[in-house]
Structures are given as C-alpha cells and as structure tokens.
Design goal:
115 residues, mainly alpha, two-stranded parallel sheet, two-stranded antiparallel ribbon, 2 helices
C-alpha cells in the first residue's frame, strides 16, 4: 500500500512538472510575454507601522522606488494590534502587540491606539 502511494505521488509530481514546463513553453511559443521581474513592492510584515510612518514610507517609495518598477505597498501586520509606544514617539516599545481587537465574528479590528 505504501509503495503504491509513493508511486502515485511520484507520477503526480512528474505530471505537474511536465505540465508546468509545457505551459511555459506554450506561452513563449504563442508570443505571450513572460514576466520580466517578480511583483515588486514593500511589505510591512513583522513590523508595526504607525499611520504617520506608513505615509512617510509610502512617499519615499513613490519618489525613489516607483521609477524602478516598485508598485505595491502592503500593510500586512500590526494594524490590529495594541502597542505601548516609546515615550514621545510613534514607535512601539514592544516587538509584538500585547493585545489585539477581534469582533464577535472573529475578524480583526483596527487598533484602538490609532483611533
């Protein structure tokens, strides 16, 4: 039974590889352009970003990186967390939020710190 499962997995992996290569080849033959670069942008994952700092980073990205193909600005983490700030700054005193806001349906809600 285990050998049969391994054979099926091997066949599926080989089939996926062949189909992927074939799709890329067909795209190139059909004259469809392939992507010249990956999606390019900035992502805040793992970093708390106050609204003022986010807009400052967005402006810097638009001025300096947009001409080079960067087009995405993603706030991916921290917008729902409650943080204690360093005194007199907009920067958190802690790496991870000490609390988060979740509604009765389990959806993250914006931080009360920003309200």
């Amino acid at each position: 039974m285990e050998k049969l499962l391994m054979n099926r997995l091997s066949i599926n992996a080989a089939l996926m590889f062949v189909l992927s290569v074939r799709a890329l080849t067909a795209s190139a033959i059909a004259g469809e352009p392939l992507a010249q670069t990956p999606l390019m942008g900035w992502n805040s994952f793992g970093v708390y970003l106050h609204e003022k700092a986010a807009f400052a980073n967005l402006e810097a990205m638009a001025d300096k990186l947009l001409p080079h193909g960067y087009e995405y600005f993603v706030i991916d983490n921290g917008w729902f967390g409650e943080y204690t700030f360093q005194e007199g700054t907009i920067f958190p005193a802690e790496k991870h939020a000490h609390d988060i806001q979740i509604d009765e349906y389990g959806y993250f809600q914006p931080s009360e710190v920003l309200i």
